[in-house]
Amino acid sequence: MNLEAPAREALARFEDKLDVLRRFLLTENEKYNLTALTEAEEVSAKHFFDSFAASPLLPCGASVCDVGCGAGFPLLPLALARGDCTFLGVDATEKKVNFVRAASSLLALENCRAEHLRAEELCSSRRESFDVVTARAVAELSVLCEYCLPLLKEGGLMIAYKGPGAKTELDGAKKALSLLGGSAENVIGYSLPTGEERALVLIRKTGQTPLKYPRGGNKPRLKPLK
Ligand code: SAH
């Protein structure tokens, strides 16, 4: 599947709103240090284009959770491109969630909410309730699976945004997948406009996640399921 052409089209189709978002991000960044990227071209390629990559993979009308959405990536571009879907972003850092809320109202995104929560906390109120869970630059895949898979309905799809090491990470997440009820479905590579290689790792939830996951006390990160 070619993910680049749809991402390029989305960049063009939503140019005006993305300009507004870029300006807002860069202004607020001076106050709150939200992103390491500060050049307009970089924001376009590495935040906007990259975020759009998963857009064609979302089923019609899906409820989507973006875990560790940070300053709104991939959350905000996906919500812009997929008005038919509903989005919830969660992040452990309050200033980022406040930014996402403000950006979402600035862009008049009625299908996008954000909560200041850790993914593990969301698992108690919204367990097995999303069609799709996305995550970018949050944790290594074996850790990420413990955050994301409990949130998915059976049959739902986890989409992890990764770099060129995606396949190796997937190999290292085999045990986590089998314990958590996931199975690897595909790894789709694509290139950013800068030429850098990226990949989406698709994991299908094929069985219920046992209730003991996610483990408490930051165990997913400190003692990954390996
Ligand atoms: N997805 C964004 C942000 C990446 S930075 C992007 O790609 O630009 C990683 C973010 O994940 C941080 O904002 C951090 O607060 C958040 N995070 C890490 N572990 C988390 C957890 N368990 N639950 C919620 N957010 C988490």
UniProtKB/TrEMBL annotation:
S-adenosyl-L-methionine binds at G68, F73, D91, A92, T93, A119, E120, R136. Pfam families: GidB. HAMAP family: 16SrRNA_methyltr_G. Keywords: Cytoplasm, Methyltransferase, rRNA processing, S-adenosyl-L-methionine, Transferase. Its main location: cytoplasm. PANTHER family: S-ADENOSYL-L-METHIONINE-DEPENDENT METHYLTRANSFERASES SUPERFAMILY PROTEIN (PTHR31760:SF0). It comes from Candidatus Caccalectryoclostridium excrementigallinarum. GO terms for molecular function: rRNA (guanine-N7-)-methyltransferase activity. This is Ribosomal RNA small subunit methyltransferase G. The keyword 4Fe-4S does not apply. InterPro entries: rRNA_ssu_MeTfrase_G, SAM-dependent_MTases_sf. The lineage of its organism: Bacteria, Bacillati, Bacillota, Clostridia, Christensenellales. Belongs to the methyltransferase superfamily. RNA methyltransferase RsmG family. It is found in: Cytoplasm. Its EC number is 2.1.1.-. It comes from the Bacteria. GO terms for cellular component: cytosol. Specifically methylates the N7 position of a guanine in 16S rRNA.
